[in-house]
Amino acid sequence: MKTSAPDGQIPKPRTPDIAHLQRVKESFARQGMMQHLGARLIRTEAGLCELALPYSDKVTQQQGGFHGGAMGALADIAGGYAGLTVAPEGMEVTTVEYKINFLAAFSGGELRATGRVVKAGKRAIVTTAQVVHVDDTGQQTDCAVMQQTLMPVPKSY
């Protein structure tokens, strides 16, 4: 898929059809860990996916804040589903690697992770994810940032 853009702009993936959007929803429903933790799919667009994870005792570390593993998993899934929106029909994506920077610790409220496709290639898809904490008043504060490489793989279910 060609995603190059003029003047060094970030490429914009083609708009997926309704089947692509349904594919993300169906795949997310199969994510046992995300279901266990109570994560929700907020929105999906071409090259973008936003998820939410509410605060609970399932996602905390010993000091009562959101665990870095929960933040990393949420970012990984948001980036992965952003990538899935541009993957060819009949394919899934799997994470090859990711790098995450934790910016702040929070408890209460919820986390929101927004994954975005940076470049979609035939063999690799590069995404980023921004994780923010949303407190009970709706105020958002940056929590973590991630860069990820995905590999398209044949759908096996």
Structural features, described:
The chain has a six-stranded antiparallel sheet. It has one domain (6-154): Roll (Thiol Ester Dehydrase, Chain A). The protein is 22% helix and 39% strand. It has helices spanning 18-29, 32-37, 68-84; strands at residues 40-45, 48-54, 91-102, 110-120, 125-134, 140-154. It is an alpha+beta fold and 157 residues long. A hairpin with a 4-residue loop joins strand 4 and strand 5 (125-134). The model is unreliable at 1-6 (pLDDT under 50).
Concise account of the structure shown:
This protein has 157 residues and is an alpha+beta fold. The protein contains three helices and six strands. The chain starts with 17 loop residues before the first helix and ends with a strand.
Descriptive key words:
157 residues, single chain, globular, 22% helix, Thiol Ester Dehydrase, Chain A, disordered N terminus, alpha+beta
Give the beta-strand count: 6
Oligomeric assembly: single chain
Overall number of domains: 1
CATH superfamily membership: Hotdog Thioesterase
What is the CATH class designation? Answer: Alpha Beta
- Tell me what portion of residues adopts beta-strand conformation: 35-45%
Major beta sheet, specifics?
6 strands, antiparallel
Broad structural category: alpha+beta
Evaluate the radius of gyration.
Answer: 15 Å
As for the CATH topology, it is Thiol Ester Dehydrase, Chain A
Topology diagram in text:
Layout: H1 18-29, H2 32-37, E1 40-45, E2 48-54, H3 68-84, E3 91-102, E4 110-120, E5 125-134, E6 140-154
Antiparallel strand pairs: 1-2, 2-4, 3-6, 4-5, 5-6
